[in-house]
From TrEMBL:
It comes from Almyronema epifaneia S1. The chain crosses the membrane at residues 20-41, 61-84, 96-115, 231-250. InterPro entries: HpsJ-like (IPR047709). This is HpsJ family protein. Keywords: Membrane, Transmembrane, Transmembrane helix.
Length: 260
């Protein structure tokens, strides 16, 4: 009975080891392919591209770590049942390459931890610049509308036939028609009136735009802070995990190779 149990354990251990290493290897390869697709085509000079790519890499960064853990666990089971030979070269040892990959990914996530806050700052500044551009466009549109109105009404006041034709054809709005009637006998006062109206419209628009701009700035900064903290923290944790596994694994394997 004891012999049967021992045989069952001996069979189960290599099977579990093979399963863990196979699933781990597939997980690692699939994750690396996914990483490669994310960075193609590269655009390293674009802060927005860097930010989006970094965020996606960090969000998926745990997947290779799980694969590495599975492969190393499978190798540990093999070593316990005597499948792995202590004297074989590191170059044909899957543990060596997995630990080397882990060290490389640890270095990668260290770099991402440093770069991400700067990319967040740059993209936030670009977003604020777009808000400023939109504010300028709205102000410019208001001024253009009043300039067109001043030109049109001034032309009508100077040409009675044209004014009469515009009225008959319904080309004037009720507001414009009221302006014409009001300033028919005093065309020079039209500029002062429209300038006053423009100033009021500009002030009202600036108040509304200023409020929206402040809200947009607060939202941009809030989202930047949340994104920066989340991604930078996750990247740092991944860097620690990969680096510890990689360096400890390589150190142990090199020590074992010297004593073999």
């Amino acid at each position: 009975m004891s012999s049967a149990n021992t045989t069952g354990k001996a069979v189960a251990s290599p099977l579990a080891a093979i399963s863990l290493k196979l699933v781990g290897a597939i997980t690692i390869i699939a994750a690396l392919i996914d990483f490669l697709i994310l960075i193609i085509p590269p655009n390293f000079l674009d802060a927005q591209w860097q930010l989006a790519t970094t965020t996606q890499l960090v969000d998926r960064g745990i997947v290779p770590l799980v694969g590495i853990a599975l492969v190393l666990t499978g190798a540990w089971i093999d070593s316990n049942v005597g499948v792995l030979s202590r004297s074989r070269s590191l170059l044909v040892d899957a543990r060596f390459w997995v630990c080397l990959l882990s060290s490389f990914l640890g270095l990668l996530f260290v770099v991402l931890t440093v770069l991400h806050p700067n990319n967040v700052r740059l993209t936030s500044r670009q977003a604020l610049e777009r808000v400023d551009t939109e504010v300028g466009q709205v102000t410019s549109q208001i001024e253009q509308r009043f300039d067109q109105q001043r030109t049109q009404l001034g032309s009508l006041l100077q040409n009675e036939d044209q004014l009469q034709q515009a009225v008959e054809q319904g080309q004037l709005t009720q507001e414009q028609l009221a302006f014409v009637e009001q300033f028919r006998n005093d065309p020079a006062a039209l500029d002062d009136f429209l300038e006053q109206q423009l100033g009021q419209a500009r002030q009202q628009a600036q108040t509304q735009i200023g409020s929206r701009r402040q809200e947009a700035e607060q939202q941009i900064r809030r989202e930047a802070l949340k994104s920066g903290f989340r991604v930078a923290t996750s990247s740092l944790l991944l860097a620690i995990g990969y680096t510890v596994i990689g360096w400890l694994g390589l150190r142990r394997l090199l020590a074992m190779s010297r004593t073999a």
